[in-house]
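Note to self: user wants both folds in one dump. Writing first protein now.
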Amino acid sequence: MHTEILILAWGAVLLLVHIFAAAHFKTRQYGTQWNVGARDEALPPLEPIAGRLVRAQANFAETFPIAIVALLGVVLAGRTSDLTALGGWIWLGARVLYLPVYWAGIKGLRTAIFMVSLAGLVMVLWPLLVP
């Protein structure tokens, strides 16, 4: 199996972690009945930690499709290399760090980690963009 596919699988696990972390804190705030209900009612704003986890989840969900295209793309195109694997691991590692840093509300570090994750994605995408 290609390393890039393994990275994608771990990325999917990380998406689940994001989903359940955000849902846990939203349920703590709004209650179990809200969680199992239709969620039609107007709700007060999320508390800071729940809000951060929801935004972290949204950020990951926005960027995960790019990772899927890049990582799957290099496999399908036969353009995998040590560089694409390294870029994938950099992306995944940065995304793993992003969640607790955002959870803790560390502004500058969160942005720096996000930029590192983008650099990892560029490393993976590059062989698909350059003939």
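First done. Writing the second protein, which came from a different request thread.
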Amino acid sequence: MSKKGSQKSAAKISFNSPVILGFTAICLVSLLLSVLTHGASNNVLFSVYRSSLASPLTYLRFFGHIFGHASWQHFINNIMYILLLGPLLEEKYGQTDMIMIIAVTALVTGLINFIFFPHVQLLGASGVVFAFILLASFANFQNGKIPVTFILVAVIYIGQQVYNGIFANNNISELTHIIGGIVGSIFGFAENKIKR
């Protein structure tokens, strides 16, 4: 006896956003390595600080610092935003552009920390998070008009970071957030200008 009517197909897991999922996996592996090595792997590979330009690891750390996190809470705070915003941005801009914005954000924040803050050890994906936040506000960019949402996000975000930088005594690099936001904004303007 045959069944009548349409049958619902079983839900399947989709491996969407390979760049974002790959980024998340690398961050998770680096955190596990840090836990296993009591932070030694973060010092060697996954943080940026003033070190000898003769060492190849210095150049690796210019990019590797975005994968390192100081704790599970630090990791979760950043990765939740990345998993929320990243897939939408990857769908809009494509895998190549996402890799480029992550790499540029890493390099710019790494170099600025290396040059101007020689005694500060920087790690974490927060620069990438804020690049994504500002980039996401360009989703409705049309006909050369600057979206009000972008203006509001930029003003609130930069204002909060400046306030925290002046008045908050914490271990968070507000400058990294601002730089990440600037990279995301520049990329958003440039990308939307090209597509017009």
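Dump finished. Worth passing along: Residues 18-195 form a domain with the Rhomboid-like fold fold (CATH 1.20.1540.10).
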